[in-house]
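Sample A.
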Amino acid sequence: MNKAVVLLSGGLDSATVVALARSEGYDCYSMSFDYGQRHRAELQAAERVALQMGVVEHKVIGLNLDGIGGSALTDSRIAVPEAPTAGIPVTYVPARNTVFLSLALGWAEVLGARDIFIGVNAVDYSGYPDCRPEFIEAFERTANLATREGVEGQGFRIRAPLQMMSKAQIIESGTRLGVDYALTVSCYQADNEGHACGKCESCRLRAEGFAAAGVKDPTRYF
């Protein structure tokens, strides 16, 4: 079987991506990041999803993005918005997906994996610039310029299968593939047990997705 590295945050989207990669016949190696996020319950959720999905190896990498700051997800002094905002929201974490994909690229090269999966979405999402198709295409070019495998081997593919799907379509796909969404945590200000606020943008998108898909929402709220 082919190997794939899958970025697994512990949320709804990334859990679905693991299921999609497995359905394509990949042996999945999942990678999560302890980057100083306030909603640390997602790390436990990622471990649960990795176990349920039968990934070959689940790796957690420690980073210090809270040392940079600039985001409501890493700086407790910045409030998580509970109402829609204009422009790129303060929950954007500077350079997060660039850093995550770079580390996934390194692990893929070590493993001999050609494909890297990420659960970014450009339909029902918060408007983060590092979720756009242009970014994914640009990073793939960078990956194949900056690595030995890119120069001497077959190169890498950055796979973003959810990119043009609505949240309802994502949930429908995951449900067909047996994803247990009760294991996941999407809330930007979840408590230590993974209970969701039901008010932040991530909670709103998740709830709207379940409603539109006609699937019972298993989210545990405060």
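Sample B.
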Amino acid sequence: MNTGNPHAPKEKTESTMSELLAGKTAVITGGAQGIGLAIARRFIAEGATVVLGDMNEDAITAAVAELGEDVALGVRCNVTVADDVAALLAAAVDRFGTLDILVNNAGITRDSTMRKMTEEQFDQVIDVHLKGTWLGMKLGADIMSQHGGGAIVNMSSISGKVGNFGQTNYSAAKAGIAAMSKAAAKEVASKGIRVNAIQPGLIRTAMTEAMPQEAWDSKMAEIPLRRAGEPDEIAKVAVFLACDLSSYMTGTVLEVTGGRHM
């Protein structure tokens, strides 16, 4: 089910790469798979070196092997643990000399109706998304301020705008990321650090491909562009927010949804 997107944008060739992130170093949490890995690929294509933080060590090994050890480093990281996040960020500085970009992308789902959802399921999702993003910004901004500034990109979700059935935990966390990004942007702007967020809609990943066809069709019917997004379409927006093309943007939340829920 769920065939590919014949109308998805064509990839630009290597010869046309503009290297918008040349010489930059980026840390990407949840970076060894899904949207995080797509962002890593796109950042490297644009000239950056990347450090991938992830809990899945097998995925880390595979991702670094694909991307190349000269431009990518993988570190096991639990984003809810401050020492892990600090070690991840330090690894970027130790290996590549700086920290220019931070993408707080790590996330989980523990879907259930509110009546059936356990406290543990609620806490897990809030901790990974909301606390994890907060720790990344808190610790990352301190390092960036010592290196002349930087760009932070936080991954929210359209669920944080409209709320999804069975996702009181996830919707709350993603809404919190949007608001927290705006608050943080005000705090760190004077240090030359920009903070922006992305709200993806239905993106074609292993997780969404596993949805029942009825659920998939229901979501597709809400999308004016009549297709799901591809992970690289989120990655390209992350590049925009990470590079100087968005130099006068901070505290923004960009919806990348094909028009869904506009």
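B remarks: The longest strand covers residues 193-200. The chain is about 45% helix and 15% strand.
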